[in-house]
Write a structure and sequence with these properties.
single chain; 550 residues; paz domain; Nucleotidyltransferase, domain 5; nine-stranded mixed β-sheet; four-stranded antiparallel β-sheet; 25 strands; ArgoL2; RNaseH_sf; RNaseH-like_sf; RNA binding
């Protein structure tokens, strides 16, 4: 969305890519206009838009006191069009909605044709897909190009000639800092028949390989949301593909087509109707339900050690920028089926908007029981790991600077949740925090390419006292790779530096959606996906009462 000065109507036509006012998507316009600032053309006053009116100007009413002589007068309902006509302002498009520029409980209506966008507004909303693509394209630079831009900027700014820097004894080197780094060997992946799979440059080929622990699928179905395809052919290809990977898939129990009448319904209505149709066609819950949608998943397995260990990944998803009324979504994933570290279960909760710390890890009830996230994940670990309790907990999360709160609040909740489940000493805990929002880049000193996959730097540019390191686990074929900055806040398990860095690298190789190493460990990515997915199912509506007009 591009915010340019001018009439609000022109702004909507441009950003919705339509030519006629009748083609404007008003629900979408409501989201686009919220919190933007406009100037009224009839009085040059500036206002902030909070929403759109439910009715057009010709029918939208509000109460107004009308004086008659010396008496105080009475309150009557008047339309926005009639009000402006009494002020000698005649509307050309009274069929358009009004801008509500008042307060939530006291609306103030301004006809949309009398409002102009104000220039130089700070844009606080999420970018569109096209804008994000353009931003990535413009900011994508090869390592050598980025190095040249940085060094040229330092030279052109001439920081050494700045009197303030000189008086403070600050000197900025004109060359990049040289640090010693090393490239960790890629972890050995284990696939079917205990066959080793060796990655090369952060990637591996899964052809002609079987799954480590394939399952048997007996009751499943295919759901077709009005796609033009041969579902029988899809089922045959899926069965053959599963056989090559070691999965025994029986024939589908049912092939469910969407009704023709449902094609024009809203997406949520279509899903609900299809769900009811699936329940009617199957004798029980299916083991596997295939919707005709493009998605690819690949699976590889890795084993951690001999001590029962649960790995937790945490992330918090907030509402779109500028939306402070939407609750945040906290998601935590926990590993299952120990000793594997490639299978996870997610648990999500809502919490106060814009709060980074997860406050529902331990949630005691009045009856003394716990309804928190950690209890749910610990029970799942216990039931899928031969009734063994975790003796070690490795916690991966994302944080910008609230390290002390992670230790004081979240770790404390984990310990309380564990103790609430029974007797026994608390497990040993290792806390690792990943940071992606930083400006550190790693370059090869004598090569134009990105640093190799598995590059780690733990000296020179790290904290002098705290335990942190930079790692590029992934291969960067495009642009300049950005390393992930890992902070080890707590290590009761007692990993050596090599062991911990190898573990972090290994967790970057078990992401089920790709046969490549990823930039951040898989548990954090899964938690991010779970939080983002849950936010799609939550719908928040805006309410308003009382009225006025500008």
């Amino acid at each position: 969305m591009i915010v340019t000065p001018g009439p609000v109507v022109n702004f909507l036509l441009t950003n919705q890519n339509v030519r006629d006012i009748r083609d404007i998507d008003w629900p979408k316009a409501k989201r686009m206009l919220k919190n933007l600032r406009v100037k009224a053309t009839h009085n040059n006053m500036e206002f902030k838009i909070i929403r759109l009116s439910d009715q057009p100007c010709s029918r939208q009413t509000f109460p107004m006191k009308v004086r008659s002589g010396s008496s105080e007068g009475q309150t009557v309902d008047i339309t926005v069009e009639e009000y402006f006509k009494s002020k000698q302002v005649f509307l050309e498009k009274p069929y358009l909605p009004c801008l509500d520029v008042g307060k939530p409980k006291r609306p103030n209506y301004l006809p949309i044709e009398l409002a102009n966008m104000i220039s130089l507004q700070r844009y606080t909303k999420a970018l569109s897909s096209q804008q994000r693509t353009t931003l990535v394209e413009k900011s994508r630079q090869k390592p050598q190009d980025r190095m040249r831009v940085v060094t040229d900027a330092v030279k052109s700014n001439r920081y050494d000639d700045d009197p303030i820097f000189s008086s403070c004894g600050i000197k900025i080197d004109s060359q990049l800092t040289r640090v010693e780094g090393r490239v960790l060997s890629a972890p050995m992946l284990v696939v079917g028949n205990s066959q080793d799979c060796v990655p090369f440059k952060g990637r591996w080929n899964y052809n002609n390989k079987k799954l480590f622990e394939p399952v048997r699928i007996e009751r499943w179905a295919i759901v077709n949301f009005s796609a033009r395809c041969d579902m029988s052919r899809i089922s045959r290809e899926l069965i053959n593909c599963g056989r090559t990977k070691g999965i025994i898939i029986e024939g589908p129990y049912s092939l469910v087509d969407e009704d023709n009448q449902a094609r024009r319904c809203a997406p949520i209505v279509r899903v609900e109707r299809m769900f009811e149709k699936v329940k009617a066609n199957l004798p029980g819950p299916p083991e596997f339900l295939l919707c005709v949608l493009p998605e690819r998943k690949n699976c590889d397995i890795y084993v951690i050690n001999k001590i029962p260990t649960i790995i937790l990944g945490m992330d918090v998803s907030h509402g779109s920028p500028g939306r402070s009324d939407i609750p945040s979504i906290a998601a935590v994933v926990g590993s299952r089926c120990w000793p594997l570290i490639s299978r996870y279960r997610a648990s999500v909760r809502t919490q106060s908007p814009k709060v980074e710390m997860i406050d529902s890890l331990f949630k005691p009830l009045d009856n003394g029981k716990d309804d928190g996230i950690i209890r749910e994940l610990l029970l799942d670990f216990y039931t899928t790991s031969q009734q063994r309790k975790p003796e070690q907990i490795i916690m991966d999360g994302v944080s910008e600077s609230q390290f002390s709160q992670v230790l004081n609040l979240e770790v404390d909740q984990i310990i309380k949740a564990y103790q609430n489940m029974g007797q026994g000493p608390p497990p040993k805990i290792t806390v690792i925090i990943a940071q992606k929002n930083h400006h550190t880049k790693l370059f090869q000193a004598d090569a134009p390419d990105n640093v190799p996959a598995g590059t780690v730097v733990d000296s020179g540019i790290v904290h002098p006292k705290q335990y942190d390191f930079y790692m590029c686990a992934h291969a960067g074929p495009i642009g300049t790779s950005r390393p992930t900055h890992y902070h080890v806040l707590l290590d009761q398990i007692g990993f050596t530096a090599d062991e911990l860095q190898s573990l972090v690298l290994s967790l970057s190789y078990v992401y089920q959606r790709s046969t490549t190493a990823i930039s951040v460990v898989a548990p954090i990515c899964y938690a991010h996906l779970a939080a983002a997915q849950m936010s799609q199912f939550i719908k928040f509506e805006e309410f308003g009462t009382a009225t006025a007009a500008c």
